[in-house]
């Protein structure tokens, strides 16, 4: 865990991302992080208010428990659908995981 800039971690509140964040915190506290100060880690959480996809309350519990600052980014799925073409343009690598490629292969 060496970096010249602050390290950001995606946190969903699920077991995988929570485990990664807790492990990074433990490694840092044991001297494994090659950064000065205690502000080396920050969580970024995608929030989908009012939908069943919103697990931000779990992510907040994890971040608060670990004492890691978190930035919550609210995503409106309806608004995001209107920007789908822009997102495809910004998608860096369209070779393997592009949703448009998957749809063309399945005939959707």
Please provide a written account of the structure:
The protein has 108 residues and is of the alpha/beta class. It folds into 2 domains: 1-75, Rossmann fold (3-Layer(aba) Sandwich); 77-108, no CATH class. It is 44% helix and 15% strand. The protein has 5 helices and 3 strands; from the N terminus they run E-H-E-H-E-H-H-H. Strand 2, helix 2 and strand 3 form a beta-alpha-beta unit. The longest helix has 15 residues, at 15-29. The model is unreliable at 100-108 (pLDDT under 50).
Largest sheet: 3 strands, parallel
The CATH topology of the largest domain is Rossmann fold
Q: What is the radius of gyration?
A: 17 Å
Shape: globular
Uncertain residue segments: 100-108
Tally of contiguous helical segments: 5
Q: What oligomeric assembly is this protein in?
A: single chain
Q: Order of strands across the biggest sheet?
A: 1-2-3
Report mean pLDDT, rounded to a whole number.
Answer: 78
Head-to-tail CA distance between termini: 42 Å
The count of β-strands is 3
Secondary-structure element string: EHEHEHHH
Percent of sequence in beta strands: 5-15%
What attributes does this structure have?
Rossmann fold; 108 residues; three-stranded parallel sheet; alpha/beta; disordered C terminus; 2 domains
Short summary:
The protein has 108 residues and is α/β, with parallel strands linked by helices. The protein has 2 domains: 75 residues, HUPs (Rossmann fold, 3-Layer(aba) Sandwich); 32 residues, no CATH class.
Topology:
Layout: E1 7-10, H1 15-29, E2 41-47, H2 56-66, E3 70-74, H3 77-82, H4 84-90, H5 99-106
Parallel strand pairs: 1-2, 2-3
